[in-house]
Amino acid sequence: MDPDAAYRELSGAVLGYLRARGARDPEDTLGDVFLQVTRDLPRFADADDPVALRRWIFTIARNRLIDAGRRDRRRLRSVRVAAEEPMSEPEDLPDPELLAGLAQLTDEQREVLALRFVADLALEEVSRITGRSTGAVKALQHRALEQLRIAVSPPSRRAL
Amino acid sequence: MDDDDLETRLRDLGKVPVEPAVRDRHLAAMAAARPDALTPAGARRWRFGWRAVAAAGVVGFLAGSTGLAAAGTLPDPAQDVAHDVLGAVGINVPRSTEGCPDDGVYRNHGEFVAEVEAAGGDVEAAARSACGMPVRSGGGPAGRGGGQPAGVPRTDADGDPCTGPPPWAGAHLPAAERDALQEQRRAQCGEDVADAGD
After folding, report:
1. A12/B34 touch (CB, cutoff 8 Å), yes or no
2. Test mutation, B4, B8, B10, chain A, max A CBs within 10 A
3. Residue A60 contacts residue A67 (beta carbons within 8 Å)
4. Which of its termini does chain B have fewer beta carbons within 10 Å around, N or C?
5. Which of B144, B170, B140 has the alpha carbon at shortest distance from B157?
6. pLDDT 10s per residue in chain B (198 long)?
7. Using the beta-carbon criterion (under 8 Å), do A34 and B16 form an inter-chain contact?
8. Cα A4 to chain center, whole Å?
């Protein structure tokens, strides 16, 4: 598969994954992810295996987020006010209520839900990407869905 | 809200297409970042790494040297070194042609003498010749007595016939021939020098 075809097939899922993970600038990060895909795809041995290709691309996206997280922490250490940096406007985002609910989860819970459902990866693939056992991924997923359900329920229903 | 609804909403989050303007920007950047787009036309990147190029160079040099040695066209000292080195690994290349009649090529001095003997020629003269003897850099044929034919007035590295070993040194010559050479040297170089080497 060539990089353009990979972009056409997976860019929506990668963008959704980045939004679900709370990326500061998901569209720019999406561009960075596929630039790396373009550069490295000729050396990727399993380019013809759709499952392996999908796992590889989401691994790149995950690593980009980790790098961005490190940069953000350095920025905070250098006394820059993160709140001043422009964020995507809430009305631009799909399902803002769900994204707000995801923002209340731990990073590990958000990661598992984003990889399992937004990226549509099997438990085993999530296990390989995150380096956790499938049992651990399953448990995290269960707790994350429970937390998310509480977070997105209207306050009146939460009391029930 | 149950978990199925949440899963559906999460899956839908991954189905939202990228805005066309953003997509076009990304695809243009990707096209510019392709490895073949980064290389100017007519200046393709190396297909092989430096190790392969170095190995090919060494192999080419060895093959070329072996070919020249097999053809006997290397300079005499190099030809003899090639004969010794390649002979050790089973590749037969000739010795140098220095000292051989008509630049004939022989594996060694013995082969030359045997051939002269077989042809009914002057075996003694052939035995005294340097043909087939290894040539060493910086001098004449190496070997017993310097490899030079016995009885031939020799010159030292400085070209002076009166310095260095006398012509009879190391050679088993008949007494008459030895006396004649000593007389010749005495006349040429004086009494003291002629007596040296006895």
Report:
1. no
2. B10
3. no
4. C
5. B140
6. 666 788 999 999 999 999 999 999 999 999 998 877 655 554 555 566 677 778 888 888 877 777 776 666 677 667 777 767 777 776 766 666 667 776 666 777 788 888 888 888 888 888 887 777 766 544 444 444 444 454 455 545 455 667 677 777 777 778 888 888 888 878 877 766 555 545
7. no
8. 21
**CA atoms of B94 and B74, how far apart (whole Å):** 10
Put simply, whether B22 touches A (Cβ < 8 Å) is: yes
In the block, residue with structure tokens 């056992």? A133
Cβ-proximal residues to A90 (8 Å cutoff; 6+ apart), any chain: A96
Please name which of B192, B141, B137, B140 lies closest in space to residue B166, comparing C-alpha atoms: B192
Interface pTM (ipTM) of the complex? 0.84
Residue A44 dihedral angles phi and psi, to the nearest 5°: -85, 120
Q: How far apart are CA A130 and CA A133, in angstroms?
A: 9
